Amino acid sequence: xxxxxxxxxxxxxxxxxxxxxxxxxxxxxxxxxxxxxxxxxxxxxxxxxxxxxxxxxxxxxxxxxxxxxxxxxxxxxxxxxxxxxxxxxxxxxxxxxxxxxxxxxxxxxxxxxxxxxxxxxxxxxxxxxxxxxxxxxxxxxxxxxxxxxxxxxxxxxxxxxxxxxxxxxxxxxxxxxxxxxxxxxxxxxxxxxxxxxxxxxxxxxxxxxxxxxxxxxxxxxxxxxxxxxxxxxxxxxxxxxxxxxxxxxxxxxxxxxxxxxxxxxxxxxxxxxxxxxxxxxxxxxxxxxxxxxxxxxxxxxxxxxxxxxxxxxxxxxxxxxxxxxxxxxxxxxxxxxxxxxxxxxxxxxxxx
Length: 352
Fold this sequence. Notes:
This protein has 13 helices and five strands. By secondary structure, the chain is mainly alpha-helical. A three-stranded mixed beta sheet has the order 3-5-4. Strands 1-2 form a two-stranded antiparallel sheet. A hairpin with a 5-residue loop joins β1 and β2 (90-94). α10 (266-281) crosses α11. The N and C termini lie far apart (57 Å).
């Protein structure tokens, strides 16, 4: 589909994981189409033979990765240290400095560094594009080609220009539209500042006792590193997240790293911590369990049950599966434990 010059979509070079996912999904489409069309038995044999070879290759690759990752398990168990602060509290530090920085932001004890701040704002601005139907979008400023290189000031100007264009469009359709009586530019500017402010706010207030709960949770699940998903990462975990999951947060057991989407939350961290706990307590079994889950996803898709994403979603509802254990058994318990400790703190403070 062609785009108008002023509404040109951002072109991104697919990563190796994305290219692999696209090839798998294209192959699945071909198999499903072959099942509906009239083809010769020989053609079907060749296609299913190719499918078997693909699954076999994926299985061998996964097995190799599993063995290597299991040997790597001890090397990726990180330490979290505790030292007394001058104020009488406790200062936590992860062995990985970047993780310490992110954790302090998540718990309200620190701000985002400039590069992360710009990344968060960029993702918030990106979310404001493509929100209207094609006819309206064609009349509005689109994402420019140099979007990924824009600084905060340029992103603010871009979003303000778009909001003003939206206001002009709304006035043409609804002449009585008045932006709450404050004028279009004031209204649009207020919206931009609100979006920028929300994009870089920590999900928690700076409360040492509450922060301690989150740090203790990280110790309990194996002290994984933390990164932002928008920073990019290639590999099987990223491939499954983008082609069989929601593409937001995910966990990479090979490096013991949680990747969080910019739309972070403590619950999102606990969600991926559930996988970290699986691998921390039962590394070999969890690798086997995870590989079995991924293989099942691919086989369901190849058998005509839909795309990788549709096939994988069933894993979350199937008792005993890798994803069901993580997100229906472990994750709720982790969140429940945090909530109970927060309630206990509130009671001691006389807030309940």
